[in-house]
Specification:
GO terms for molecular function: RNA binding; zinc ion binding. InterPro entries: DYW_dom, E_motif, PPR_At4g14850-like_plant, PPR_rpt, TPR-like_helical_dom_sf. Among the domains are: about 70 residues, no CATH class; about 130 residues, no CATH class. Helices cover about 65% and strands about 5% of the residues. Strands 2-1-3-4-5-6 form a six-stranded mixed β-sheet, covered by helices on one side. The protein is globular. The chain starts with a helix and ends in a 6-residue tail after the last strand. The protein binds one DNA strand through helix 1, helix 3, helix 5, helix 7 and helix 9.
DNA sequence: TTAGGGTTAG
């Protein structure tokens, strides 16, 4: 008995070392084992493969006189994790002991290598063999590639086939809701979680917190957060990012201090949240302090996103020179996002001279770099340099880069409706359009003059006006007001930043219709109420 | 005791 128990313990230790990346220690345990059964060999194959020694893993696997289904599945997983999905597929096809784990590992391998079609093909071929993990793999694959609608429809299919969802299913679905801003569905999932008595661990807890933050219900997010018995850096970061998005700068800082007190180490995402919180609330002194502490105290290396937050913070506060100095001191060269932050600040503070200088810097960026096309084209357009705009657009077409079209989402009666800028595809578009015309007339009476600054197309004034009116968030909000009961808050998610004219119109609409309007743009939440916005026009 | 699914930002 004693002998067998030793092997049992040693195998556990070997597995542990393999999983925490201590391959040397794993090897030593393996070499010193008096008896190596198939379980120990499987664990060693996994330890080698997962730590990058695929050929050693393969050699050990090939030498095994006896194999279990785990042996085969370990090889499939190792090949997938190291990016050789074709090799994994060859093992999968050849595997004489194929079981549901083999299918799941292979489907996940396709998902993780951005081959969703192949994943779905296998998923469909798996037929009745599928278990909850198979479904979860497919659903999380869709969420990872931002196919949120497909994730939800796959979940509905899972329910139709009477497969019981698990905590992992809920985590993926909540992530989809967070991205879509689908609060009603998120609430439904939370209720479902309670009814099923699912265990709310750090994964599920964080998914709930994040969903409530991103869907604009900060109170519910904090309720869940406070109820968690265990919180990791993800949970803290989600709350801090959430508070930042809602413009609660002081609260974000207090939360960060609490995180520090509880001994949870912040990561780079935590600092993105913290610094953007300072930025949204104009907390310059605090922002400077945390930026310098992030490496000195917390050993988190500032990345370009953190510099971007700081440029934004300093720029908004009118410290344009300091922002410029910071850009010059960056260890990596600035990208369009960083220069763009400074350019926005120049516009707010009406510094034409620096604006010109920054524009020059922007124009020096590589036009062949995909990320720069759109920004450059807008800069040229603002200077009325239409030839260059044309060149940028042609380059974009040539390279197959397309400008991200403005897109807004709104959930009405458990259905997420999607609107693109100037989009006439929605079945109720005629009514929406008439409604917006009517709103326009009312706003003109109130003295609203459309601001065309953010419509950078070489078109005449009248066309510009209609292009503004049909920005996606405006269509979505109009649709929301038309299709929901009086007094119900409107919640819209937009993929880009709100333009200044839409921002003004939203304020007026919140007063005109006595509605709370929440718009989550790329940067933060705007809560429009009674003619003003929670961002205090500072965004 | 060995094999498969889950979270923050971009």
């Amino acid at each position: 008995m004693g002998f067998g128990f030793d092997v049992f313990l040693q195998t556990g230790l070997l597995d542990f070392y393999g999983k925490v990346g201590e391959l040397g220690l794993a090897r030593r345990v393996f070499d010193e084992m008096p008896e190596r059964d198939v379980v120990a060999r499987n664990a060693m194959v996994a330890a080698l493969g997962m730590n990058g020694f695929l050929s050693d893993a393969r050699k050990l696997f090939d030498e095994m006189s006896e194999r279990t289904s785990s042996s085969w599945n370990t090889m499939i997983t190792c090949y997938c994790k190291l990016g050789d999905v074709e090799a994994a597929r060859r093992i999968f096809d050849y595997n004489p002991m194929k079981n549901v784990v083999s299918w799941n590992a292979m489907i996940d391998g396709y998902c993780k290598s951005n081959q969703l079609m192949l994943a779905r093909e296998l998923f469909d071929r798996a037929g009745d063999l599928k278990n909850a993990v198979t479904w979860n793999t497919m659903i999380s694959g869709y969420v990872q590639y931002r196919e949120f609608g497909k994730a939800i429809s796959t979940f509905q299919q899972m329910q139709a086939e009477n497969v019981k969802p698990t905590e992992a299913t809920m985590v993926s679905l909540l992530s989809a809701c967070a991205h879509l801003g689908a609060l009603d569905m998120g609430n439904w999932i939370h209720t479902y979680i309670r009814r099923q008595n699912f265990k709310i661990d750090v994964f599920l807890g964080n998914a709930l917190v994040d969903m409530y933050c991103k869907c604009g219900n900060m109170d519910a997010a904090l309720d869940v957060f406070r109820s968690l018995t265990k919180r990791n850096a993800y949970c803290w970061s989600s709350v801090i990012v959430g508070l930042a998005m809602h413009g609660y700068g002081e609260e974000a800082i207090a939360t960060f201090d609490q995180m520090h007190k509880e001994g949870v180490k912040p990561d780079h995402v935590t600092f993105i949240g913290l610094l953007s919180a300072c930025s949204h609330s104009g907390l310059v002194i605090e922002g400077r302090k945390y930026f310098s502490e992030m490496f000195e105290v917390y050993r988190v290396e500032p990345g370009i996103e953190h510099y971007s937050c700081m440029v934004d913070l300093l720029g908004r506060a009118g410290l344009l020179q300091e922002a410029l100095e910071l850009i010059k001191s960056m260890p990596v060269s600035a990208n369009a996002a960083v220069w763009g932050s400074l350019l926005r600040a120049c516009r707010i503070h009406k510094d034409a001279k620096l604006s010109e200088q920054v524009t020059d810097q922007l124009l020096k960026l590589d036009p062949y770099d995909g990320g720069n096309y759109v920004f450059l084209s807008n800069v040229y357009a603002s200077l009325n340099r239409w030839d260059e705009v044309e060149i940028c657009r042609n380059l974009m077409a040539e390279k197959g880069v397309h400008k991200t079209p403005g897109c807004s989402l709104i959930e009405v009666d458990n259905v997420v409706h999607e609107f693109m800028a100037g989009d006439a595809a929605h079945p109720q578009f005629a009514q929406i359009s008439a409604f917006l015309d009517d709103v326009d007339k009312k706003l003109k009476v109130l003295g609203h003059v459309p601001d065309m600054e953010s419509v950078l197309h070489d078109i005449d004034k009248e066309e510009k006006e209609s292009a503004v009116r049909y920005h996606s968030e405006r269509i979505a909000v109009a649709f929301g007001i038309m299709s929901t009961p009086r007094g119900k808050p409107i919640r819209v998610v937009k993929n880009l930043r709100a333009c200044s004219d839409c921002h003004t119109v939203m304020k007026l609409m919140s007063k005109l219709f006595t509605r709370d309007i929440f718009v989550r743009d790329r940067n933060r939440f705007h809560h429009f109420r009674d003619g003003s916005c929670s961002c205090k026009d500072y965004w």
